[in-house]
Amino acid sequence: MEYLMENEEEAFRLDIKTNSRVVEQQALWAGIKPGMHVADMCCGSGKVTSILHKLVQPGGVAIGFDGSEKRIEYAKERYNDKGITFRRRDIRKSLGGEEMFDFVWMRFALEYYLSSSFDIVKNVTKLIKPGGILCLVDLDHNCLSHFGISPRLERTIFAVIKYLEENADFDPYVGRKLYSFLYDLGYQDINMDVTAHHLIFGELNDIDAYNWTKKFEVISKKVNFNFEEYDGGYEEFLGEFNRFFIDPRRFTYTPVICCRGRKPVA
């Protein structure tokens, strides 16, 4: 199944929405240190790989893996500094033959693999050295928490997300599952952190406006959802959502859950 957000501008969307300071804080919390050999799984635009690379200096190496040739090309063009490598790999398939890593990072990827998220984590685990760290970062209640929204708009958003669960392998609740993944795989020293990822109130900034509009635009073209409460279909729905979203009274948030653990030595 194709990545739900696949489109010509996806690398750019991932690039501009990534907050470097937040990534640094999450990685340091997880235990990244200078000299580590790091893998960034589903690296997207390569921006996060570049951030991780800086955190493991001096002496560290960072490799970004992604299933999209276009995003790998984008990453190589913009973030191919000395010590950074980008490789095309499908995380659902065997990753044998790759070197072993001290620190493996996977952020905002598992939400697109409802039916296989645990198997993906199990697969990625094979790349981690005994005693190495795995850090999973993902959202919970994704796109679903808004205040100031009309009842029909709220019902429709929930219905769209439910449709994506059933027809596009999307998991809006994967964040709450991360702890169980590491627990079931026998990881040690597991730790959790929960903060806000989307925290939108007051005047809407350009990055949030672009990110959310692009999400709806891309998804609407890929799914055959019937906007039955809107006589004007998707266009009427989108118009109402945009009016809600640009209203400075609006409040929108999504929790981000970070889970890190250490692979057993034996």
From TrEMBL:
InterPro entries: Methyltranfer_dom, SAM-dependent_MTases_sf. Coiled coil: none annotated. One of its GO terms (molecular function) is methyltransferase activity. Keywords: Methyltransferase, Transferase. Residues 32-140 form the Methyltransferase domain. One of its GO terms (biological process) is methylation. This is Methyltransferase type 11.
